[in-house]
Amino acid sequence: MCQLLGMNCNVPTDICFSFEGFSARGGKTDDHKDGWGIAFFEGKGCRIFMDAQSSVNSQIADFVRRYPIHSTHVIAHIRKATQGEIILENCHPFRRELWGRHWVFAHNGDLKDFDLPFMDFYEPVGTTDSEKAFCLILESLRQQFPMVKPPLEPLLAVLKKITSRIAKHGTFNYLLTDGEHFFAYSSTKLCYIVRKAPFAAAHLIDEDVTVDFNELTRPKDRVAVIATTPLTDNEVWTQIQPGELITFLDGEPVAELGVRS
Questions:
Q1: How far apart are CA 11 and CA 209, in angstroms?
Q2: Which among 2, 9, 46, 91 is annotated as catalytic?
Q3: 140 vs 118: CA distance, rounded Å
Q4: Contact 145/84 with Cβ under 8 angstroms?
Q5: pLDDT band at 8 (very low <50, low <70, confident <90, very high)
Q6: Strand 244-249 to 71-78 pairing
Q7: Phi, psi (5° rounding) for residue 211?
Q8: How far apart (Å, rounded) are the C-alpha atoms in residues 193 and 197?
Q9: pLDDT band for position 261 (50/70/90)?
Q10: pLDDT tens readout for residues 136-166
Q11: Neighbour count for residue 203 (Cβ, 10 Å)
Q12: pLDDT per residue over 15-55, tens digit each?
C-alpha cells in the first residue's frame, strides 16, 4: 500500500528534513514506486508537485528535497498502486474547492466494492478508490453545509459519519486539510510527533541525516508531523489508534473523535 506524510505547524516551516527520509521510501528503502505528490498551503493558496515516476528517480522530487518551501499545512504521498493505472491523474494528493477554499486529500489503503452514489457536484478525474472517497467526503460536506464552512464540531460530526461509511469497505488511512484545519484518520496505521521546546536533534531512519532543531527554531514554534510509520529513530512517536480521527491546529492535536461503526 501507499505511505502518507503530513505536517501542521503554528508558523510556516519547511518539510525538507522529513521529506528527505519519506521520499527514500519511494524505491530506495521501500517499494512505493508508483508515483508521488506533495501539496503546500500558503495562506489560501496551494502549490502541488507530483510525478508518476518514483520519488527517488523524480527530478521534481529532487527539487522539493532541496527547496525549502515554508508552509503551515503539507500533505505528501508515495504510491504503491492497488487500484488504477500508474499515471499522473492517479497520483495523490488530490485537490478540490469547497466553500472558497482548496481541500487536499491523500489516502493509504484499499477499498473493495466501493462505488460512488449519484453525485451532484464532485466527480473523479482518475480511476482510484482514493479519489472516489475524497469526492464522496466533499460531496457529503457540501450537502450538509451548502453555503459556508461550519464550526469544527458539526463539521467533524459529518466527517465522522462519512468516514465510518467508507471505512467499511477496507483500509482507509487518510490525511485531509483545507489549510485551516488538518485531519488525520487511522484505519490501521498512522502516527505523529509534536516537536516543540525544548527542541533536540532528530535522526532519519531511511537516510543517515541528523538535524538539530534547536538551531533552526524559536521557543514558541510547534510542528506536528504525521506519517504512516515513524521517520526518525531517536524520537517518540504517538500511534493513532484504529478508528481515531484527529484534528491538528497550530501544530498540535485539538480534537479526537472515534469513528468506529
A1: 24
A2: 2
A3: 12
A4: no
A5: very high
A6: unpaired
A7: -125, 135
A8: 13
A9: very low
A10: 999 999 999 999 999 999 999 999 999 999 9
A11: 15
A12: 999 999 999 998 888 777 889 999 999 999 999 999 999 99
To the nearest 10 degrees (0 to 180), the angle between helices 152-167 and 129-144 is 140
**Other beta carbons less than 10 A from residue 254's beta carbon:** 12
For 185-213, what is each residue's pLDDT tens digit? 999 999 999 999 999 999 999 999 999 99
Q: Is 2 a catalytic residue?
A: yes
What is the C-alpha separation between 69 and 19, in angstroms, rounded?
12
> What three-state secondary structure class fits 65?
helix
Of 142, 156, 128, nearest to 98 by C-alpha is 142
Instruction: Name the grid cell of 79.
Output: 504510491
How far is residue 104's CA from residue 188's CA, in Å, rounded to a whole number?
21
**Block residue for cell numbers 484499499:** 110
Compute the C-alpha angle 132/9/151, nearest 5°. Answer: 60
Angle, helices 16-24 vs 59-66, to 10°: value is 150
Q: Which one, of 125, 23, 126, lies nearest residue 77 by Cα?
A: 23
pLDDT value of residue 260 = 44
Residue 250 near residue 10 (C-beta atoms within 8 A): yes
